[in-house]
Design brief:
The chain is mainly alpha-helical. It contains 31 helices and five strands. It has a five-stranded mixed beta sheet with strand order 2-1-3-5-4. Helix 10 packs across helix 11. The longest helix has 31 residues.
Length: 760
């Protein structure tokens, strides 16, 4: 019998997104909330379109009127270039590596006592295993065993071991503790956003896959995020790079591209450390970007887990959707950067620490009921299930925090240290046991990177803290240049306002809805009011989130050089606040239709921004993009070097000057970053013409490429700087001395760069 309108209204009220069954919204308070939020939202969208550093924002909506032109852009203007099938190989390699890492996660979690449903365990297995796969790749690379057959054996073995672990003793690795069975965690609010999120996430997933399958085009990605793994693949081992300072920092996220490069067969270059195995580093890099993108997407899963457990199902769904519908997040996750990888590990570290805190409250209550008895002097098998699970969650929180610190130094101060201090002082009591387990997990996940630096340079945080630890290959001049380029300059109120303006709405990749909802979560109407067992945790989550966001913002403003993307690891927590506010606003009558509409508009804008990235040839074949006839991502001289059989000469190399974006070059090259010693200066400084020519030949240099426009950019005020000896006058002198000659004829020369041939 069909339900009557009255019964449907009753059911919708019971399953409202803000709380448990029977928790009916306050109509007066809800309407008042919309009287406050509505104008703020209008202002946010107005600023988004009218005060942006992206002049095309207001024109994005017109793309809906010309979908055929967008599709033509995606095939570079010619449907003959259509080649989605070329993504199949990298996608398969990425899927194999993800399954292998999940197997590692299943194996590791088999030894922990953790309660959780299938969704929680799947997310934890994947992220735990991806951290383990990164650490394992580092260890194998340091041993000099980077070859394809070994990595395929590791991958297959990990999948089998994980499958066996999952089929182990029934109940193994799972706590006997009952789970909180409140309505918000079963699915309260599913009618509001549940089915919509399932539909809305489909285009986001497709866009993430398409964008991650694109060859790299961003500077840092081509200079070190993918270039450094490519060099290690070529050498067959992970080692110190004296010419690329960025390659000697923690690169935990980049271990996934390295692993997929090693595993990708069919390359013509003979990379991989085995004469019988050839690795296709280009296809492997695409697969690695897919793995990094998967980690970025899993940060939304972390938001969902926190939201649905302690806030509401709707809050978790809205937070996850708002996070992935932020263009800055979408782009960072898919171009090969590592900030959203840190965000993923960070939010899962948060989740594990919150699970520990929840159990700590339960343990305190249990002790009070038993008259204060303590388990710490009991044997491990005699301890309560709560104590055993607390230990596991503390260890896992440290594991995720250490995995974040393995990706970037900033994660130590943004993620690991604050979370460790919060657990150590939780409840204003010293929690030494939990802090020790956290430290152990952190060292296991990320400590090898810092140990590597100690062995290779004597400095665990090379090249930072040079005045404290020193560092081989670094000096006072380089340290000062690094400090000038990477640390904050000035703390004037006008600077603070401009940065808040950029982060709030002006940044091209910001979402119009995320900041205003996150701020609204701090109001009395923007946070779910829980009267059940999760009420205390809900209030604590908001306090922790606000304090942590303020701490991250203060460190970012006071110490760093304030790149907006450095704040991205904090976006999952901001999205959690925003999701809670969205779900709470949707409880009121005005929000039942308005909030889904606002979420849909935000998603649409994100997809439109993603449709016109600097290189949006999403449907174009990878072979076509690799050679890039339109020069959208490949410098014309780079393409000439790749295609010319005489550049460089047999057995020799091209020396790149002021050019570190060398990932796409397929020939042997020598280069250095702007902070490292210039290789050309070492070869020609204070020498005669004969000595210069002899030094170049002995170094195996047949050609020299100078990127003049990059050199000018480096030397702009406030930029990184470059070796002062590299000047047009030096090259004019080398030509006059008969050391070099310009390679290209006059009609093919570029003002931005010059290619020289070393004369015999």
């Amino acid at each position: 019998m069909p339900a009557s309108p009255k019964s449907r209204r009753s059911r919708d009220s019971e399953m409202s997104p803000g709380g448990g069954r029977g928790d009916k919204p306050d109509a007066t308070a809800g309407s008042l909330a919309w009287w406050v939020f509505g104008p703020l939202c209008l202002v946010a969208f107005a600023l988004y379109f009218l005060d942006s550093n992206d002049p095309l924002r207001a024109e994005d909506l017109f793309l809906l009127l010309i979908p055929d032109e967008v599709l033509r852009l995606w095939v570079d203007g010619d449907w003959a270039n259509f080649g989605l099938a070329s993504r199949l190989g990298p996608t398969v390699v990425a899927a194999v590596w993800l399954l292998a890492c999940r197997g590692l996660g299943q194996l590791l979690l088999r030894f922990l006592t953790l309660s959780g449903d299938a969704v929680e365990r799947l997310v934890l297995e994947l992220v735990t295993g991806l951290a383990a796969g990164s650490a394992l790749t580092l260890a194998v690379g340091l041993a000099g065993w980077l070859n394809g057959p070994l990595f395929w054996s590791i991958a297959i073995g990990a999948m089998v071991a994980g499958w066996l672990a999952a089929r182990g003793t029934p109940g193994a690795g799972k706590s006997a503790l009952p789970r909180r069975d409140d309505a918000s965690r079963i699915g309260a609010g599913f009618g509001f956003v549940g089915w919509r999120c399932g539909i809305w996430l489909a285009p986001l997933a497709a866009m993430i896959w398409l964008a991650a399958c694109m060859p790299p085009w961003e500077f840092d990605v081509m200079a070190y995020h993918l270039q450094v793994p490519k060099e290690w693949l070529h050498d067959g081992s992970i080692h110190f790079l004296p010419h690329n300072v960025y390659g000697n920092m923690p690169l935990g996220a980049e271990m996934h591209p390295l692993a997929t490069m090693v595993m990708s067969p069919g390359g013509p270059d003979g990379f991989g450390g085995s004469s019988s195995w050839r690795s296709d580093w280009f296809a492997g890099a695409i697969a690695g970007k897919l793995v990094i993108a998967a980690l970025g997407a899993l940060s939304a899963a972390g938001v969902f887990l926190i939201g649905r457990r302690w806030l509401s199902f709707a809050a978790g769904c809205c937070g996850a959707l708002l996070l992935l519908a932020t263009p800055l997040v979408l782009q960072n996750a898919t171009i090969g950067h590592n900030e959203m990888v840190i965000g993923c590990y960070g939010v899962l570290a948060w989740y594990a620490a919150l699970r520990w805190a929840e159990l700590a409250s339960d343990e305190s209550s249990a002790k009070a009921n038993k008259g204060g008895s303590d388990d710490k002097n009991l044997a491990p098998k005699q301890r309560s299930p709560i104590a055993s699970e607390m230990q596991s969650w503390a260890l896992l929180a440290g594991w995720f925090a250490g995995a974040a610190a393995a990706c970037k130094y900033t994660a130590v101060v943004f993620v690991a240290a604050p979370l460790w201090c919060a657990v150590l002082l939780w409840g204003w009591r010293w929690r030494w046991r939990a802090a020790a387990w956290m430290m152990a997990g952190g060292v296991a996940a990320g400590g090898l990177w810092y140990g590597k630096n100690v062995v290779e340079t004597g400095n665990p945080v090379y090249p930072l803290a040079y005045s404290v630890f020193g560092g081989d290959g670094w000096d006072v001049d380089k340290c000062e240049r690094w400090r000038q380029a990477h640390f904050a300059h000035g703390h004037r109120p006008a600077q603070l306002y401009e940065k808040l303006r950029r982060v709030g709405w002006k940044e091209a990749g910001q979402s119009p809805l995320l900041p205003v909802l996150a701020l609204f979560a701090l109001t009395p109407w923007g946070w779910p009011r829980r009267d059940d067992a999760s009420g205390d945790m809900s209030a604590r989550i908001r306090r922790w989130a606000v304090v942590w966001l303020l701490l991250v913002g203060a460190i970012w403003w006071g110490v760093t050089h304030r790149l907006e993307r450095f704040l991205l690891p904090s976006f999952p927590v901001a999205a959690l606040l925003a999701g809670a506010a969205a779900a709470e606003l949707a409880r009121a009558k005005p929000g039942r239709r308005a909030m889904p509409g606002l979420l849909a508009l935000t998603l649409l804008l994100a997809l439109l921004v993603a449709a016109r990235t600097p290189d949006a040839r999403y449907f174009t074949g990878l072979d076509y993009l690799r050679h890039d006839p339109q020069s959208l991502r490949l410098h014309p001289t780079h393409r000439l070097i790749n295609q010319s059989p005489d550049i460089p000469l047999a057995g020799q190399q091209v020396l790149m000057v002021a050019d570190a974006q060398v990932f796409n070059l397929e020939k042997p090259i020598v280069y250095n970053s702007c902070f490292d010693d210039c290789r050309l200066t070492k070869l020609v400084r204070d020498k005669s013409a004969i000595q210069r020519r002899q030094a170049l030949h002995e170094a195996g240099i047949s050609h020299v490429f100078v990127h003049w426009s990059e050199l000018r950019r480096y030397r702009e005020p406030g930029n990184y700087g470059f070796d002062e000896h590299i000047t047009p006058e030096l090259f004019a002198e080398l030509v006059a001395q008969g050391v070099l000659t310009e390679t290209l004829p006059v009609d093919q020369r570029e003002t931005s760069s010059t290619l020289y041939t070393v004369l015999p």
